[in-house]
Every structure is written in structure tokens, then in C-alpha cells.
Inverse folding.
């Protein structure tokens, strides 16, 4: 069996040593389907705190968007960035001996702000010792040509990645989860990033409401065909205080089982071109906000051991 082409192995080959992503979450950032620009309430599954251990709290209730003309939170954001990077990178260095980092702007939509704010934050992050680049999580409807051009310039000197939530290629699914855009919007955004030579990571969610295995695999095939360079696979899990939690309690949504997730993941990996690296195979949450499925509350070691066993049966080595 040949080992899976993971993102960690890609970075190890490129930089000659281990590189760690440092997750960042900053005050003032939100999403256009939360603030009413394209929808309200956010994606039905989204309690954004569950996606970022470094999410800053928005005490001021000031939120930015692409039309913001000023940013009263910039100095606070720069301090949050500095504190989060310093704390997390120190842990990686002391526990694992890591000396190289990608600053990962993770929580919410990290291009959904005035260009000058983005430039200040990205350049601050790139100034830190050991930082070799950035990974920027965002939505396909929230990136301007100006920002893409700027990131393309940075990519001449740094390792720059843009991460788009694809989730599904089925518009009926995207509408049901209140995504706020269609699949064509994602395809166009990926094409625009790739046309500038940017590295693109796509996120897929398996187990979305109303989707069967073939629909999930259709989304994987499309993502590969769109030319992404890396991929993250996620199971859909239900957390408290989300719209999806209401669906689950009414019996309108049945979460994906571990066995079904492992099967569709194996199929997606078999379909994946070798050159596309894998950044994530699964996800979960280890606190009492999880409602279902219970396997998404397993420890990371237990979850990965289970997947390792299932994938090995298909001659996939992770």
C-alpha cells in the first residue's frame, strides 16, 4: 500500500521539515449569510466556535464586510493575531519541535473585510518568526479580484493557500442548509484563484441533509475536476443552538453513521487524483454541545484508528 498524499507530507517535502498550521479566529469577522447580505442565520449546521479553538469573542458586536469603509477593531485584531500565534506556535515548538508555520485564518469568512484590513493582518502574520505562508478560509462569494491579485503577489514569496467551502455541488442541498450561494459560484471562484496561480483547498461535507452516497461522490468528482490542489473531508455533525439541531430533534435529519462515512470516504479517496493532497479525513467535537452522531465525539486517536482500519481494508494507507 502506498501512503496517502497528505498535506503534511507535501509540506515536509517542500520545506524539508515539519510545518504546522496555526489556527486564528479574530473579532469583527462574520459571514454574508449571517449578516443578511445573502441570507440570515448562517448555514444550518454552523456554530462557528466549534470550528476554531482560537476563536476570539466579539464583545463589541462590530462586524466587517466588503463595503466597510473603516475598521475600529484593527488594533484589537492585530493584538489577537499576535497573542494567538505566539501561544499556539510556542506549544508546537515545545511539544513537537516545530519551527515552521502556516498562519491559518480559520473562523468565519476571512476575506470578508476591507482590503486594507486584510492586507494589514496578512502582512502582520507573515512577519512572525518561522512563518512560511498563509492559509485563508473563506467563501466563494466573499473574495474580491483585488484580494486575489494581492494573494497572487504574495504567493511569489510565500506559501499561500485559499480554502473554499464547497460542501456540495447540489443546489437543492445548498439551499436547504442556507448556504447563500449556488455551486456555480464556487466553481467560478476556484477558477479565478487557479487562473492567478493560487493554491486552492476545497472542503466537502459528507452526510448533508437529503444526500445519498452517489450525491456525495458527485461532489467529490466535481471538486477534483475543478482543479483543487488539496481537500478536506468532513462528516456533518449536529451541535446545540443550530438550525440543524432543530431538524434533528424533529426527526427531519438523520446523521451519517461511522460505517457509511468510512465507506464514502474510501470511495472518494479512490477517485481522487494522486496529486491532490489530503488535509483532513474527518472532524468532530469533544464537548457537551454535540448532539449527534455520537462517533463525532470520539477522541481523535479513536476516530483515526477506526478510519485507519476501515481504509486499510481498501488498501488505503494513512
Amino acid at each position: 500500500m502506498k501512503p496517502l498524499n497528505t498535506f503534511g507530507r507535501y509540506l515536509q517535502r517542500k520545506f524539508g521539515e515539519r510545518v504546522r498550521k496555526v489556527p486564528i479566529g479574530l473579532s469583527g469577522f462574520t459571514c454574508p449569510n449571517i449578516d443578511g447580505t445573502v441570507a440570515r442565520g448562517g448555514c444550518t449546521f454552523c456554530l462557528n466556535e466549534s470550528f476554531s479553538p482560537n476563536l476570539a469573542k466579539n464583545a463589541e458586536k462590530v462586524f466587517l464586510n466588503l463595503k466597510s469603509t473603516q475598521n475600529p477593531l484593527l488594533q484589537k485584531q492585530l493584538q489577537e493575531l499576535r497573542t494567538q500565534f505566539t501561544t499556539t506556535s510556542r506549544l508546537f515548538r515545545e511539544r513537537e519541535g516545530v519551527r515552521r508555520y502556516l498562519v491559518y485564518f480559520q473562523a468565519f469568512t476571512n476575506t470578508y473585510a476591507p482590503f486594507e484590513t486584510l492586507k494589514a493582518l496578512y502582512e502582520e502574520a507573515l512577519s512572525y518568526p518561522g512563518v512560511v505562508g498563509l492559509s485563508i478560509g473563506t467563501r466563494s462569494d466573499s473574495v474580491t479580484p483585488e484580494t486575489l491579485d494581492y494573494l497572487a503577489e504574495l504567493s511569489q514569496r510565500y506559501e499561500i493557500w485559499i480554502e473554499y467551502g464547497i460542501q456540495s455541488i447540489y443546489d437543492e442541498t445548498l439551499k436547504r442548509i442556507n448556504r447563500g450561494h449556488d455551486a456555480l459560484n464556487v466553481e467560478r471562484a476556484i477558477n479565478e484563484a487557479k487562473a492567478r496561480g493560487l493554491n486552492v483547498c476545497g472542503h466537502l461535507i459528507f452526510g448533508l441533509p437529503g444526500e445519498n452516497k452517489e450525491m456525495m461522490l458527485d461532489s467529490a468528482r466535481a471538486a477534483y475536476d475543478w482543479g483543487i490542489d488539496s481537500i478536506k473531508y468532513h462528516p456533518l455533525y449536529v451541535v446545540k443552538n443550530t438550525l440543524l439541531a432543530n431538524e434533528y430533534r424533529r426527526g427531519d435529519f438523520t446523521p451519517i453513521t461511522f460505517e457509511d462515512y468510512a465507506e464514502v470516504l474510501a470511495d472518494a479517496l479512490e477517485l481522487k487524483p494522486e496529486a491532490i493532497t489530503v488535509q483532513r479525513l474527518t472532524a468532530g467535537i469533544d464537548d457537551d454541545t454535540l448532539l449527534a452522531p455520537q462517533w463525532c465525539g470520539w477522541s481523535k486517536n479513536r476516530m483515526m484508528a477506526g478510519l485507519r482500519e476501515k481504509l486499510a481494508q481498501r488498501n488505503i494507507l494513512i
Residues 74-96 form the longest helix (23 residues). The beta strands are 19-24, 100-105, 131-138, 159-167, 199-206, 230-235, 238-239, 277-280, 290-292. Residues 295 and 302 are 9 Å apart (CA to CA).
